[in-house]
């Protein structure tokens, strides 16, 4: 049965094992899910061993390599969670017998246990009545005792959850803060006819969904179900979609919309309909229990026509009879399509959302495919191998988001002139031959991300027409911009770009409020031989990179313009100290400074500055008060890194690297 606590129980066991190196050397957790395949399972296990199986010619050799890798390890425990299919251990590459090692799995099927020949089978039973009431009370999170009347009803509500932890947690979460006995009795009445088994769990979850009493929250939960089962959904990515769809309404500033999105996700976590998680690199994510996902899909199917088959290993699109005039949402991400042929020309005028992302084998989409998608608003083709975007894209006049991130084979995009409703255009990590035509017509655009085309400079005259831009993220190493044009974008909150020289940068800084008005920025002035995108991501969210520049002190570039930055990188510039680059009195937010191959630099701060500048007294929020990391490499004229007078300002300095 689902929702009885198998995964949670095993998570506790894993955490205990991780604290007991005397029991085993390695504990590996693999979530299998319904989109099971031998190859996928093998790759997931190999990832824990840092094995690359892609170089092997066939399944037999891949299994042999994994087998060898597992045998080299000693005293390991492999946990396979949410297994739906049986398989032969040798086909994957799991050694038989498991000498000194253990394989633990969870499944809803007794038959799977029998067919895999598990030595010990443990049936996880529902909680007893007393245990159920304890768990229910914990998830109510009450600071004050319930009245006797409400307590009696609450115990009855807990009993109706049939000892199923998932149901108990979600129902209790939805009733936090409720004191009115009428509401409690109404809840009890709704739960009494909720069936048994998985139907019981569904009814309990549906009750928690209905209790949200907020259409935007309900739509947000439904949207999470468009991703594959057990998928870690990155918060920022999800909120971007919710803005595209209008689930989060326009709020002026994009940061305000993201704050609203995070608040919505927190609410869904607080009522236990979403779980918090993290990616391997620490990125914040949410995850859905598979039963909650099934419920959300069922609700969508009741409301409108949808095709939701992400991660279903489909090699062809669903048959034409599924593509009806009333079709509203299609999610076919992470499948195995290679082509969408002219024979597939569906008429779906009401289709608003189409996800074809993560289909790495998709190389061709026929022009006819999009011709009758007049109502399409969100189109995501990211992480596909298409080389050319169909011409019919040009006629999708309702489109608000066109997402082509990481389409590394993409060379051609048709004219975007008619797409005047477009608010988000993502062409990052593509290989476009030229800038798309009609960019100047996208006057509603809020977010533009793209990397280098053949043009090394962004076409003149386009940016001032995109006056509503809030996010402008261009390849900081390959596309240069004019400072005056960037300065005309008064709504910018995020800026990632390259200015060819100091004159353009100063022109931008002198416009309006410059860097101070930005929430995040990565700005390269000049060129750099050392920094790439991966390295740039290690710097704080507001960083300026200065490379291969001659600092002209006559234009007074420094004194006020670099206020508010958190990271500063200097490479091959002729400054004698940081006094030539920024106003030290205002360097209150700097966290990271890196100086490379600046052969004219003699010290971090010149001694003359202390003599003439009347430096402020050290304080917890003053000059250099937030500086944590300082790196100085290859500066041959550097005689003193710090003057003695500077030390009292460096109250938070953690890392110094000098070479």
UniProtKB/TrEMBL annotation:
Domain Disease resistance protein winged helix: 226-296
Keyword tags: ATP-binding, Leucine-rich repeat, Nucleotide-binding, Plant defense, Repeat
GO biological process per UniProt: defense response
Ranges annotated as spanning the membrane: none
Pfam families associated with the record: LRR_8 (PF13855), NB-ARC (PF00931), WHD_DRP (PF23559)
GO molecular function terms attached to this record: ADP binding; ATP binding
Presence of the UniProt keyword Repeat in the record: yes
Source superkingdom: Eukaryota
SUPFAM superfamilies the UniProt entry points to: L domain-like (SSF52058), P-loop containing nucleoside triphosphate hydrolases (SSF52540)
NB-ARC domain location: 1-139
Alphabetized InterPro entries for the sequence: Apaf_helical (IPR042197), Leu-rich_rpt (IPR001611), LRR_dom_sf (IPR032675), NB-ARC (IPR002182), P-loop_NTPase (IPR027417), Plant_NBS-LRR (IPR050905), WH-like_DNA-bd_sf (IPR036388), WHD_DRP (IPR058922)
UniProt record similarity statement: Belongs to the disease resistance NB-LRR family.
Matching PANTHER family: AND NB-ARC DOMAIN DISEASE RESISTANCE PROTEIN, PUTATIVE-RELATED, NB-ARC DOMAIN-CONTAINING PROTEIN-RELATED
Protein name stated in the entry: Uncharacterized protein
The organism of origin for this protein: Salix viminalis (Common osier)
